[in-house]
Specification:
Rossmann fold, six-stranded parallel β-sheet, 13 strands, 3 domains, single chain, binds nicotinamide-adenine-dinucleotide, seven-stranded parallel β-sheet, globular, alpha/beta, 15 helices, 454 residues
């Protein structure tokens, strides 16, 4: 489960040898540490117009007024090495309008600090936009995805796509920008995330480092891997947790729950009464349920021509049918109504397809459809439903992949490495947070810009 190659080319004597031989060196990624600055240097805000001015003002503003107190430049200064570039492209009207901000960004890329960030802010291309406007807006998509592939040193490029009518300073826009700038999004690369609505930021958060304070979260498949990391990360962010896993994983589950003073619930999520049992446990032990994280998942890979019926149906049952039934029980209960958050684990296989995974990809694409259709059901309560689609993550699931295929899979992303469970957990924590309330029914990839699919 460790990426030995990544370690060797970045440490000690083998680092020198790798450098001399010109071997590809996947970068060590900048990951979140409490208390560390949001970005480690000055930030260039590129783009002209009121939106760019408003964003720059917020980034540079005093913390007492909700600002981020960053060293913001509005023009690229010669010789300055930037930690981040925010390109505000919301006001482009024709493709030719992209030239100026794109070239400004290009001008500072060589000096971008390791672990740097480029974030675009743009508007979605809509069917009733005129052709020139739609071309300009859609152009941002190709620009950002290609730019991300050119970045080095663990730097990433991501975009916030702000729905019509939502101001660029809306709480969820700023929260998404902050997530992309931060080390929490270390393995999110080449992605555009839509912010659909300007909703209040939800329950007031006194402590920004603990946005989930007072919230009760259920995480399924919590005994190991990504689920365990989600538990630890959500607790770090202030939540109280119910950790769910099958009885066979009971001992591991108890260790995970005890380590964070959460409670453990041994339960097969495919049980017909799983939803009510989860709810009863959460209410009895914690008095409420605010966030449901559907993480439990299995693979039973086979080419479709060789697929036995039980391989197909067990994957669909755990990965999507159980999620649907549990969510339905929560919705019917009337207890999941205080700005609830649902976050479900999809997969890049469900987006791009993967040979040998017709069953798994059907289930994971199903999850993407499920959250899209669940979001409007939760919206009346200030709730959201979103998915996180991991690419290759270093867990026991991927440790089962044959060694050579595993090595290749790791390098098939812009960041040239697999992600860590915590990278997925950070995305889940972000979508579960009150400030992400304007993101509704979306799927965020955490894949290092895996080269397959979009
Ligand atoms: P994992 O196999 O390490 O852990 C999955 C956990 O789910 C296990 O603890 C298992 O006991 C539990 N589980 C399985 N069936 C269950 C059931 N019926 N009821 C309750 N718990 C059950 O997997 P992981 O790599 O940590 O993956 C977590 C999620 O992320 C899954 O949904 C997976 O499909 C998804 N994902 C993982 C990767 C990756 O690269 N590891 C990539 C894309 C998506």
């Amino acid at each position: 489960m460790t990426d030995t190659y990544l370690h060797l080319v970045n440490h000690g004597a083998t680092r020198t040898v790798a450098k001399k031989l010109g071997l590809p060196r996947p970068p060590v990624l900048r990951r979140y540490e409490p208390g560390a600055p949001l970005v480690a240097g000055p930030v260039l805000v590129a783009g002209r117009g009121p939106d760019a001015d408003a964003v720059a003002q917020h980034l540079a503003g005093p913390p007492a007024e909700g600002g981020w107190d960053l060293a913001v430049h509005r023009h690229a200064d010669d010789g300055v090495r930037y930690a981040a570039v925010v390109a505000v492209l919301t006001e482009v009207a024709r493709p030719s309008d992209l030239a100026d901000p794109a070239l400004v960004v290009g001008g500072v890329l060589k000096g971008l600090l390791p672990g740097g960030r480029v974030v675009t802010l743009s508007r979605p291309a809509l069917p009733d936009d005129g052709p020139a406007l739609a071309a300009a807006r859609q152009g941002v998509d190709g620009f950002l995805r290609s730019l991300a592939k050119e970045l080095r040193g663990g730097a990433t490029g991501n975009g916030v796509v702000v729905a019509a009518g939502v101001p660029v300073t809306a709480a969820s826009v700023l929260a998404t920008l902050r997530f992309f700038l931060s080390a929490r999004s270390a393995y999110v690369d080449g992605q555009l995330l839509e912010v659909d609505a300007d909703v209040p930021a939800g329950p007031v958060v006194a402590d920004e480092a603990r946005p989930l304070e007072g919230r009760v979260v259920v995480v399924t498949g919590a005994a190991q891997g990504i689920g365990r990391a989600i538990v630890e990360t959500l607790v770090r962010d202030g939540a109280r947790v119910v950790a769910v896993d099958v009885p066979a994983a009971g001992e591991k589950l108890a260790r995970v729950a005890n380590a964070v003073r959460g409670t453990a619930l041994q339960l097969d999520v495919t049980a017909a009464d799983a939803g009510t049992r989860i709810l009863e446990h959460a209410l009895a032990r914690h008095g409420r349920l605010d966030v449901m994280v559907h993480n439990a998942g299995i693979t039973r890979d086979k080419l479709l021509a060789n697929m036995a019926p039980d391989r197909w149906s067990s994957v669909l049952a755990v990965n999507v049918e159980a999620q649907l039934r549990i969510t339905e029980a929560l919705l019917e209960s009337g207890e999941f109504v205080d700005a609830p958050r649902l976050v479900a684990l999809a997969s890049t296989s469900g987006i791009a397809g993967n040979r040998g995974q017709t069953n798994y990809a059907a289930s994971k694409a199903g999850v993407i459809g499920m959250v899209r259709a669940t979001a409007p059901l939760l919206a009346p309560f200030g709730g959201t439903a979103n998915a996180v689609a991991p690419g290759f993550i270093e867990t026991e699931m991927t440790a089962r992949i044959p060694p050579v295929t595993r090595q290749v899979a790791r390098r098939l992303s812009t960041l040239q490495q697999g992600g860590l469970p915590v990278d997925v957990a950070e995305a889940v924590a972000f979508l579960a947070s009150p400030a992400a309330g304007g993101i509704q029914g979306r799927t965020l990839r955490v894949c290092g810009q895996n080269l397959v699919g979009r």
